[in-house]
Amino acid sequence: MPFYPAGVSITGIDLTPGMLERARRRMPELGLDDRVTLQLGDVQRLDFPDASFDTAVATFVFCSVPDPVLGLREMKRVIKPGGRAILLEHMRSPNPAVGALMDLLNPLVVSMMGANINRHTVENVQKAGLELERVEDLGLGGIFKLIVARAPGVGR
Fold first, then answer.
1. What pLDDT digit, counting tens, does each position of 15-38 carry?
2. Any residues with CB less than 8 A from the CB of 41 and at least 6 apart, and which?
3. Fold that domain 52-156 belongs to in CATH
4. pTM for this entry
5. Considering only CA atoms, which of 47, 48, 51, 75 is closest in space to residue 61?
6. Which residues sit opposite 40 in a β-bridge?
7. Do β-strands 10-14 and 53-59 pair in parallel, antiparallel, or remain unpaired?
8. Where along the chain do the CATH 3.40.50.150 domains lie?
9. Across the chain, which distance is largest between two alpha carbons, in Å?
10. Long-range contacts of range 65-71, CB-CB < 8 Å, 24 or more positions apart?
């Protein structure tokens, strides 16, 4: 939350009450009490009207969402036409050997941590109907990426 520009209002959702409580405890020390709203929610069923937000941001979310394409479609639905989706995600390595190892280890990692390590998030963004604007490789052999996409429509 401290990295969002001054003057923007922030609506944060999380599936777990514990994470929301942790965020609530940090808000006063960050001086964000007056511009942050936090609520319990599931990205697969967002409780917001269509075209509610200029931008949606997700950080390491779509590795643990049961149906990531559904969640990304919901994200697209609540973004205004031409608005942005900004995702920081880890995903399956493009390296065939590393990717195969990630596929092999994924069931174990999911059972231990709940997160999938072999998602195809860039492709899922496109399947959800968001238009890729930029995909930036952030290291570890293409596993970590910054994805910037737009909701189709005006405002381009």
1. 999 999 999 998 888 888 788 899
2. 13, 14, 15, 47
3. Rossmann fold (3.40.50)
4. 0.91
5. 75
6. 14
7. unpaired
8. 52-156
9. 49
10. 68/119, 68/121, 68/124, 69/124, 69/127, 69/128, 70/44, 71/43, 71/44
